[in-house]
Amino acid sequence: MATDNFFNKRFDGVQLLRALAAFSVVINHISFIENGAFGVDIFFCISGFIMMYVTEKGADSFIKKRIIRIVPLYYLMTIFTYVCSIIIPSLFEKTKLEPVHLIKSLLFIPFDIGGNIQPVVRVGWTLNYEVFFYVILWISLHISHKYRGFIASGVIMILVAMGLILNGTGYLAANGQELYEGGGHGLLFGLDEAVDFWTNSIMIEFIFGMAAYEILRRISEKVHQSTAITCILIAVSVVCYCLMWSARYDSWANDIPRFIVDGIPALIIFLAVFLMTYGKKLPAFPVFLGDISYSVYLIHYFIVRLFNHYVCPDGVADVKAVAGAVVLIVIVTLLSALSYRIIEMRSARFLKKIL
Length: 355
Prior knowledge:
By secondary structure, the protein is an all-alpha fold.
C-alpha cells in the first residue's frame, strides 16, 4: 500500500523528465538532427503515472481538470494555425486545410491530412492519444476506482489486439485507401482512420505509466538513496537514452514496435529518474522547464519550420546551422515561458472559476 508520505513528496524528477521529453521533440524537428521523437514516449509514460496519481484520492472533476490543462493553449494554437493557412497558404503548400479539419482537430478526432493522421497543429497528434486515454480512464473510474488502472489497461490491450486483427485482415488499409480515393468520404466521417489511430500499439505506453505508478507508490519509501544506487540509476538512464537515440540510425529497430524500442527504455528512464530524485528539491531552472514543457511542445513546431526553411534548408550541420539551432532553442524557451505565464496560468485560473 502507498503511504501518505508518497502523496506529500516532491516530484521534481517528473518535471525534469517533462523538460527532457519536450526538448527532445524540439531537436527532433531540426532538419540536421531529426532525432528525439522518443520524447513522446517519455510523455506517455509520465501521463499514465500522473493520471493514476491525481485520481488516487478521488476522481472529482477529472475531465474538467484535464480540459483546463490542455484545451486553452491547444485551441488557441489550432485556430491560429488554421487562420494562417487561409492568410498565408504558401506556408502550407503540402496541405490544404478545410473547415472539417478544424472541427475534428478541436474535437480530438483523428483524420488524414497530407498523408498522415494528424490534426491541424501537427504535433497535436499526441493529444489525440492523450484525450482518448483520459476517456478510457474516466470510464474505468466509474466502473471501479480501486481497479481503474487494471480496467484501463485491459481496455487498451483489447483495442491494440483489435487493431492487429483489423490490420491483419486488411480492413483498415483497404478502407483507408478507399477513403483517400473517394475524396474524403469514409465510414462516419473517417471513423476507419480513427479506429486505425486509436488501436495503435503505442497506446501500451500509457499502461507502462500506470504500471510505474503501482510500482513506485509501493517501493519509493523503501529504496535507500545511497550514492552507489544513485550512480547506478544515472547509468541506467543514460544507457536507455542512448539506446533510444541510436535506434533512429540502426536498421535493427525498423521492424520492432515503437512501444518496445522506445516505450520500454522510456519506462526504465522514468523509474530510474523518479527513484533517484524522489522527495528531493532540484534546481529551479530545470523544474521550470518542465512547467513550460506543454507550451514548448505546442509552440516550437512553427519556429522550427521557419528555421529549417530559412536557416538550414539543406539540412547540413554547418556552423551557421548549429549556431542557429542554439538561438532557436533560446527563442522557443522564452516564448514558451511567456505562453505559460500569460496563456496557460491565466486561462487555468479563469476556467477554474467558471467550471
